[in-house]
Amino acid sequence: xAELGVENLNLxxxxxxxxxxxxxxxxPGELFALIGPNGAGKTSAFNCISRIYKGEGRIRFRGQDISxxxxxxxxxxxxxxxxxxxxxxxxxxxxxNIMTGRHxxxxxxxxxxxxxxxxxxxxxxxxxxxxxxxxxxxxxxxxRHAHAGALPFGIQKIVGLARALALEPSLLLLDEPSAxxxxxxxxxxxxxxxxxxxxxxxxMIWIEHDMQMVADLADRVHVLNYGRTLASGVPGEVLSHxxxxxxxxxxxxxxxxxx
Amino acid sequence: xSRRPRASGYFRTGYAQDLKLVETRTERWSLSAFLMAxxxxxFFASPFQLDLANQVFxxxxxxxxxxxxxxxxxxxxxxxxxLLAAGAFTAGILFKEMNAPVWVTLPAATIAGALLxxxxxxxxxxxxxxxxxxxxxxxxxLVVYLGGEYEARRGFSTGIVIxxxxxxxxxxxxxxxxxxxxxxxxxxxxxxxxxxxxxxTGRAWAAIHxxxxxxxxxxxxxxxxxxxxxxxxxALTALxxxxxxxxxGFVSVEAFSLFLTIQYVAMIIIxxxxxxxxxxxxxxxxxxxxxxxxxxxxxxxxxxxxxxxLFAVNYAAFGVVMILFLVLEPLGLVxxxxxxxxxxxxxxxxxxxxxxxxx
Lengths: 259, 359
What we know:
The complex is a heterodimer.
Chain A: E1 4-13, E2 16-26, E3 31-35, H1 42-49, E4 56-61, E5 64-65, H2 71-77, E6 79-81, H3 94-101, H4 110-115, H5 118-137, H6 153-165, E7 171-175, H7 183-200, E8 204-207, H8 211-217, E9 220-225, E10 228-233, H9 235-240, H10 242-249, H11 254-258
Parallel strand pairs in A: 3-8, 3-9, 6-7, 7-8
Antiparallel strand pairs in A: 1-2, 1-4, 4-5, 9-10
Chain B: H1 25-44, H2 47-72, H3 80-98, H4 102-121, H5 129-153, E1 160-161, E2 166-167, E3 170-171, H6 175-197, H7 200-210, H8 212-217, H9 222-248, E4 250-251, H10 258-271, H11 276-299, H12 303-306, H13 310-328, H14 332-346
Antiparallel strand pairs in B: 1-4, 2-3
């Protein structure tokens, strides 16, 4: 059974068709790249999956229909995401940002928290320990007490990734994690993505513009253009598909870049 | 909210220690010295000074409650005076109509505040910023109108007189007794706020304050947390209102004008948004300010001639101070305090190292 199945997803804003008949399935442990030119509807597809946009069509997560749930319920099921523009909470420390990502896993009630009962203390300490494991996983030890808004953009992106991982998700949606990163930061990011894939065995849907990274890392690629699917399959085939090359990569050949 | 590690000398061995409110020996000593000073104060203070301290305690409860709502959860409310009135009138009406004892009226006022908090909070699910402020303002007028109607219908047009509260055989009266009671309430409110803010609720509020959609996508119940902020804040405010009624022994709608709301908003702005210490500093400042102006004018030569314009001067000076803070020190009194602290902590250097520079 597929981890996430999207069947015939449509999204319209007034007269504008953003997504038209989008269908794909992500298999367990798969790194699934979603690519396409600007405005193709990649982020809109993410917003439909995390239910910030209400698209028509069916989305199944491990067999369960999630197309009528609230964004909060989707997060609680274990679908975590990062954002294209990071969207950290700038005045909170890195630590608190990541702790906030665990909110769906907290179980004490406000009354207990007001009195700060031993249960709350135990819970906070337990989750802090989990957050520290994630901080170690993505190598953010040096900045854990820094204000998120004061950090360089590249590190903010990694904090966003850590916040998504904090949910202990079963599916991770990465929205252009490499955009705006330097070459070194991209190398780090590629390492973290591979580490998530191999150590945590998390299936990921990954929106990406860096074709070299996609070609190197992705298991399968799905190409969108104007909300419609152009091609889908293993990176080697898809990226050399003539329509994809024409619509997205321009007329230059992919080989020209890596040469 | 997690705290930075100490510069040196204190080593933490578990994550629970990060959450302690008082950690080092110096902190423990200075806190106990401060508490001792607070406990000793009423035995040296004049009745006038005691009354000032009691007013500060009452204002602190209200300011802390408003700070939770506006400074942390990011929900603007102009209904604060209405909520204080609701608490005061709940206590007053229950006393007048049923002769209810204080251990009934205080919880009743708190519950009334919590229920009103739901009503005040419902617009926040749809409205933001100024629109929300105006909707809470409407509720303020509704509450004050109902209070006024009650006074008029029952023939208490000058206000409701409340007897000194009795607990068992003990009558609570006198500035010194009230000092300890109000101080205990203010201390408990502070502790409650601190606890909420260092747990998941505080993080959820901060997240909603910063980015609502993101908070929701992270699995935070945005509507529930907004309402929770309104309920807790309103319950505390109504409690402060009821305590105010008992302390003054008198309830009247005139005390709960829009100016009172503005004073509370001023407290959290002058004190410093997003800081509990700021709420308390703001409460101290705004409460003592008119008395300071009065004393200053009284010290002028020929003070008698200015006595008539004292009221106007007070209002004007209050406005000027508000503007000065907004323009010159948006971080409020806490900003000033933090800057002094940082100066001494970093000396002889001027700036903190860049975050992440050790990476």
